[in-house]
Amino acid sequence: MTTTNAPNPNTTITQLIVNVTKGCDSGYPQMDMDESYNIYFNTTSHTGYLDANEIWGAIRGLESFSQLIYEDSNNNWFVKLSTISDQPRFPHRGILMDCSRHYISVRIIKQNLDLMAMSKMNVFHWHLTDSESFPYVSAKFPNLSAKGAYSPKHVYTQAQIKDVINYARLLGIRVVAEFDTPGHMGAWEHGQPGLLAKCYAEEGWGDTDPMISNIIDPTKDANLQFISQFFDEALHLFPDNYMHFGGDETIRYQNACWLNNSDILTWMQSHNMSNDNSKLLKYYLSNLVQFVQKSRSNASMIFWQEVLDQNVAPNTSIAHVWKGNSYEDSMQEMNHVTQNGHLAIYSSCWYLDLIKYGVLWDDVNETAFEDRGMYYQCNPTDFNGTDAQKKLVLGGEACLWGEIVDGANVIQRMWPNAGAAAERLWSDLEQTRNSTAAWPRFHEHRCRMIARGFLGPFARESGSYHSKH
């Protein structure tokens, strides 16, 4: 953002004129939307101007204009007269909300969308299903939610999903759904018997085996047909050109559920896979890609990084990096996936469910992610790669997994902590290096959230919303 102070700050502003070059867009926001805008003032005509190429930039500019307005101690309202030329650093700036482990109501989801718009975040990554529950209501396969959700009340109907998508659209936010496969599918089995592989310890299936199946059996044609039909429906329900297909943590189930399953092993050997789990995983993913391309040829597929680490990902896959015991490890992973030509999304150090004493977004000295809060220090392109590699970085997401949050505390846990990621992903790198300088901005932003009716965690230091920062 480039900002210059305008002269004569005491001038009265009577109107704001919004100019959108391309007019209103009847479609949905997409990855390539233009969010740039300019704000300036004519003190002679007492007019403010907001110019944008697309409506999405106008939405961002209106939020910035609202943040120029402040109230003094005498209850007088003022506008900080400035000239602003602004655009995002990255096109993908997201929040992941896990709505499977604990159900989050549509009302709370909309609150989160409002807060995302306040912080210029533009991707709602909706983690809809997981091992614990299946709240997504499929028209083709209603038993998935009827038997896989926590209760009939803890579901998202297709009408509710469309409502969320349209609400997000008005805020310039994309809704990217995630249906995690081939692992994390424990809840699918309740409504689709036979979908998951049976898992065996070395001594055979029985009470001595603690493993519960959580991974698909991709050797059954009926299962592949089901996956094809399921995603055909989902791809036509969600209008975004991107969908997240998961793919994480399958390696923990592959030996017990694939290699130790005599039926699956026999099938693998008859298809020249020997006992190589990666070949079976690649077989499943190759079929999944064909299904997606047949259903929507323009759909882009996002996977968690393990799919790429195992060298089984389709060439056009987008890597979502989440692992790494340290910041340095995660940067090596970003270097690795971009070196192989993949677009990348970064989340490793923005896991909001990792609890730490004190301020989570400030500077810390620890290197292990579980010991650091340091959301503000993270930079998705902070790896030793070429300029061409760094251009493959789409942005990042702050992730809040649902083991320790539900509708009662998810907003307070998410915000304003996610604002650190939001500013790092939107603003120029040089303007966001110093968390000490950022602290007054975050404190004021928290006060804005409270002024708009959102509850937030108590700030470390007292202060006033009417600050001069």
TrEMBL record:
Q: Which InterPro entries match?
A: Beta_hexosaminidase_sua/sub (IPR025705), GH (IPR017853), Glyco_hydro_20_cat (IPR015883), Hex-like_dom2 (IPR029018), HEX_eukaryotic_N (IPR029019)
Family matches, as Gene3D superfamilies: Chitobiase/beta-hexosaminidase domain 2-like, Glycosidases
- Keyword flag Glycoprotein: yes
List the record's Gene Ontology CC terms alphabetically: lysosome; membrane
Domain Glycoside hydrolase family 20 catalytic, first and last residues per copy: 90-428
Alphabetical keyword list: Glycoprotein, Glycosidase, Hydrolase, Signal
- Which EC class, in a word? hydrolase
Q: Which PANTHER family match?
A: BETA-HEXOSAMINIDASE (PTHR22600), BETA-HEXOSAMINIDASE A (PTHR22600:SF21)
Family to which this protein belongs: Belongs to the glycosyl hydrolase 20 family.
From the Swiss-Prot or TrEMBL record, give the protein name. Answer: Beta-hexosaminidase A
What is the organism of origin for this protein? Acrobeloides nanus
